[in-house]
Write a structure and sequence with these properties.
The protein is of the alpha+beta class and 147 residues long. It contains 7 helices and 4 strands, in the order H-H-H-H-H-E-E-H-H-E-E. The relative contact order is 0.13.
Length: 147
């Protein structure tokens, strides 16, 4: 039972951590970020299993985290009011060619980051953008204005 409680506590900690870090940072990982995730994974494993290196302990921990993930997905699907808390909401960054500075600051994005993503979507200028939306997965969607 101790393994289950530790696994659930770590699952909640990781869920909160990823919401705090922000979706944009998680969607654009650099090599250092990948190494950091591996280190965090090792630290989490040590904290959850402690001295229990048995196969049974590993199965219990993996099953607990898997069930917690399925439960979180079900809650997000079933109860619409929980979705913003668990997954976040899409955030409008540009509306009719005007950058929404408050939302950019909140998501720690610069104009240069936004312009780079626009160029990757074959958009020359942010003035051509009707909507730019930071999606819940960290990607930015662009809708061009009608000519």
């Amino acid at each position: 039972m101790d393994l289950v409680l530790r696994a659930l506590a770590v699952y909640v900690l990781i869920l909160v951590f990823t919401r705090i870090v922000g979706r944009r940072e998680l969607s654009t990982m650099q090599p250092f970020d990948l190494i950091l995730l591996v280190v965090i994974g090792d630290l989490v494993q040590q904290g959850v299993t402690q001295n229990d290196m048995s196969v049974t302990g590993v199965v219990i921990v993996i099953a607990t985290i898997g069930i917690a993930q399925v439960g979180t997905s079900y809650l997000s699907f079933r109860f619409r009011r929980l979705r913003p808390l668990l997954e976040g909401d899409p955030i409008v960054l540009v509306e009719n060619g005007n950058v929404i500075e408050r939302n950019m600051r909140r998501e720690r994005l610069s104009i240069d980051d936004l312009a780079e993503q626009a160029r990757k979507s074959e958009i020359e200028s942010l003035e051509q953008v009707k909507w730019a939306v930071l999606e819940t997965n960290g990607e930015i969607s662009f809708i061009k204005q009608q000519q």
